[in-house]
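Lay summary

Proteins are chains of building blocks that fold into shapes. Our project writes down both the chain and a compact code for its shape. Here are two examples, one after the other.
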Amino acid sequence: MTTTLLRTAAELHARARAGRRAVVMTMGALHEGHATLIRTARGIAGPDGEVVVTVFVNPLQFGEGEDLDRYPRTLDADIELAGQSGADVVFAPSVDEVYPGGEPEVRITAGPMGERLEGSSRPGHFDGMLTVVAKLLHLTRPDLALYGQKDAQQLALIRRMVRDLNFGVEIVGVPTVREEDGLALSSRNRFLSAAERRTALALSGALFAGQDRHAAQEALRARAREVPATRARAEALSAIGESRAAADTHAVATAVPGGPAAVRAAARQVLDEAARLDPPLALDYLALVDPSDFTEIGDDFTGDAVLAVAARVGATRLIDNIPLTFGSFGAAS
């Protein structure tokens, strides 16, 4: 389809609108993860709606020593991918268009959630992110906006901002897209050498290890409830590969479903091993958090959670996460 490149909000506002407008916000260097967001937006907006992809490298999101100048700019390729994925418009404003008076003195503050995890590692990052998201929502005037779940803390903060400040827009989260080897798609992956990429696989590997441990424990917990408190219970538990737990069926029967501590330990083991590779993985954080506020969950937690990790491999910093549900007596979501 033909995709129109627009540089100003006035040009965008002058377009005739029939159905709903869906916006996908990016910093460019589009890849299959962005394409999935755009295709999802196209499906929601429908043939009568409009899909707008913003391409803007926001200087407020980069702290001192971060890779603003190094961040890839590939607008021609971005327009092509956006069009192939179903975008009607690529909105690529200049810094002066977004910040006409220079860096804004009045900004959105992310609050306590914005100081945790990514916010602790990158002070001021989420204030800058929310400020530009708020401005782009005003500039593009969408009915809905889509964001990837790979940036789980960002998505949670955008949802909180929209709710707390009464933005009239629907926020849609789209699941993380991964490459065949499990690495979460990111514009920064292109900076990894072949050896660094092998090390970087520990991020998703750690998450999958935690997910597998969680699923096994949830299955064990469900089986323990189903089997009568007899010798048959121990035999059943042993049959699903939990012989140590089967030795103490009473402990299994009263254990907290899913075991957050065990999930963390399984993930940490993979990351510890990656720290000894060449090149090594330098862990920033591993966290198992409540997605409503990104605080660590306790061993008695039930409900939805996020297992999140951030690390550096060489000069490249990567993040990843995976959703889990505790107390469901089933596999991870």
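And here is the second example, written the same way.
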Amino acid sequence: MRLCFLVEEQYRHDGMPLEVIHQLRAWGHQVDVVWPGRSLIRISEAIQAGSHDAWVLKTVSGGPGLTLLEAAASVGLTTVNDVRAIRGVRDKALAAVIARSKGLPVPVTYAAARPEEFAEIAEAEFPLVVKPADGSSGRAVRLVATPDRLLDPVDAVESGGAAGPGGAGGGLLIAQPYVPNSGTDLKVYSVAGELYATERCSPLHPAHAVRERQVPLTTEVARITAEIGDVFGLDLYGVDILLGPDGPVVVDINDFPSFRQVPDAVARVSAAVLDLARRGTRGREASVREAAREAFAGEPVREAGREPEPVSEAVSVAGLPTPPFAVPSVPRANWPAASMGGGR
């Protein structure tokens, strides 16, 4: 196959996606790499020519790569993930609205252009987690204990060099009430329908020692993560989940994340990219929601005060060894023919 990867400067030395690119080339596929932030691109010729079977994006939020991916989709080219799915999660304010409207467990979310505007929120809802609506990689995420701390300067390292009250170059900010938790984030990765749960230290609790590792995936968290893929139309994604006093809470969604701690991650993601390039991403007519419900039919639902049993069933990808903790994926045989570059 012929693939084009859009990779921004921030990821030029990153194992994901560079190792995936090397793996695909080793398998005999043609992979071109475009660096949107540091090269001249003859965009009309590159995209209109249609010389690639699919375009894949690994970029920062708000970076130029997404525009190029949207241009490719606009002329009918397949993209991984679907461009409208990416846009839906890159804007965290938009993502919060979409998720809550679909009944997903997302905190109440406020948006403002300046941090001082959050002082209008009732003090009982503090502490707040404040972050840029276009943020990524934990950039400029901070915990604000009381309204009088809203204008405290953001640490330059924390904000990626953009120190100041907003910490994100003047863009839109969002705020959500802090969810009490153990200081450990649960990161669940989806590789084209297969789910893997890992835990890591929360960026809000850097002093809390947590060994990053793969952990069992509960039925409840699996359902939430699968539903996110359905709602947003994502195929390769990650979800940050906190286990709060009232159950799991979704605090972030990322397209094409790092897939750290996923066993055989490079081979699995590479195989998924090829499969999605051939079949098309979730920009297709079928109801994946119904297929996902069938896949999880009959599994127990979490009862109040009780943790569900870990899910241990597994499904292999492209003949690779089956790891623990993967959950049943939406059977690919049930996917309809791809709608090239289309939306949901």
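What can we say about the second shape? The first strand starts at residue 2 and ends at 7.
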